[in-house]
Amino acid sequence: xxxxxxxxxxxxxxxxxxxxxxxxxxxxxxxxxxxxxxxxxxxxxxxxxxxxxxxxxxxxxxxxxxxxxxxxxxxxxxxxxxxxxxxxxxxxxxxxxxxxxxxxxxxxxxxxxxx
Length: 115
Hints:
Layout: H1 13-23, H2 43-47, H3 73-105
């Protein structure tokens, strides 16, 4: 998985492990472990801040601040199209697998390739 634009280092699972360890996907939010970087904020704490800005400033990508350094719009648009087509292909495969599993469980239903 690469960051938007295709430039720079490849984003790998270990880059996200701190978040996963704190967030505990699939478990109750009450079980989550807060850290200095990953913690929840109460409404009262947020509204008492100056300007109540929810911008996550420390996660900004400095390369996006220089408009001259951005890729041309046609390159960005093609990357978006490629990403969407890949996602659609993955979802189509999942839908077909689910349909085929349903057919295996209920022989009277219609296989995905017949739809």
